[in-house]
Amino acid sequence: MLHHSLPVLLVLLPLLAACVGAPAPMPSASPPAARAEATTSVPPRAEEAAPAPTSPPWPSADEMLQRTWESYRHEFIQDDGRTKDPMRDLATTSEGQSYSLLRAVWMDDRATFERVLRWSNDNLRVRGDQLFGFLWGRHADGSWSILDANVASDADQDIALALVFAHRRWGEARYLEQAQGILADLWSKTVVEVGGRPYLTAGDWAAQQEQPTLNPSYLAPYAYRIFATVDPSRNWIGLVDTSYEVVLGCTQQALDSAVSANLPANWCGIDRTTGTLRAPLAPLDTHFGYDAFRTYWRIALDARWYGDQRAYAYMGRSGLLRERWLKDRTLASVYRHDGEPLNRREDPTIYGGLIGNLILSEPQTAELLYSYELAPRYAERDGQAFWGEPRNYYMQNWMWFGVALYAERLPNLAA
User: Domains in the chain, start-ordered, CATH in brackets?
Assistant: First the structure.
């Protein structure tokens, strides 16, 4: 970390911003449909808020991570282990369960891990295989059960990774056995081969499409390297390589725009015959938004754990948001693939992913982003600690993940 240089950096920020140049014009546009879990109130623009002080008044990163985890556990995770989303009619997703499992194992909180895993196995694993239905919640008749049994491949891979970590941390063979079962079905039902090479699709539904749907923010090269050690019969290392190709290709190619602004896309597709990356099938979009920002975090974590130089090269090329933030000290929450803002509202959730880009490409700017956008959003009220909007499940998770990545508190427990 570079805490000793923060006062100098704060003085230099206006000078750095002056070198960036004017941003692209902002057209009037209606915001697209966004993830329901990411809806949030609008915080003040950075220039309207108090400037970041040179000596932080907030707690240490370790204290913030611990306190917000304890509050998240109290506010979002029921006693039976179900992670609820207050802004989505208290529904539960496999994604939410995966985040709770990862955070619990990183925080060495076995009791919470067990509760979340038990509920997930009892309520989401209803497909007849080892995978998890995506959505559980309230039906029109008032009953509660699975609403969508399709697989979101990012959630299942994150659950498998959490189980591998749990096996290493707490030593129980059943964790590893379940992880291996998940990986076998994840491969057979969500991975497609194109030209003899494996590509992770967005889910079992996507693997069946003529043009399979890909979500670059699902791709986790660091996890595939670990999976190769516990499930060696499958080509997980090949998936590392195609993941980098998809992330880079869906960032650099114009897809459905005239040009690309080198922003990761929420979604894209792949031609089964040629391997050409394309715009996704409607109604999915190529915007940079509430899916795409996670791409930076996942690629940064691979660099942190394994030092892949492709990660550094990728972050260096994807510089639009760095430049915009240095100049304006605020970002839109959604951009078109060509860089034009679609939703001008600032949402600090995005910064939890962007910090990954800056950690690799401009570490001094990463410190500024942490000091202006992440740490100052930490708050305590009525005995609870939270980031920004306390009821926003997605914000609570991704600001926690962003701070933990910045503070180097996400160890590779399988190493």
Answer: 3-8+59-406 (1.50.10.10)
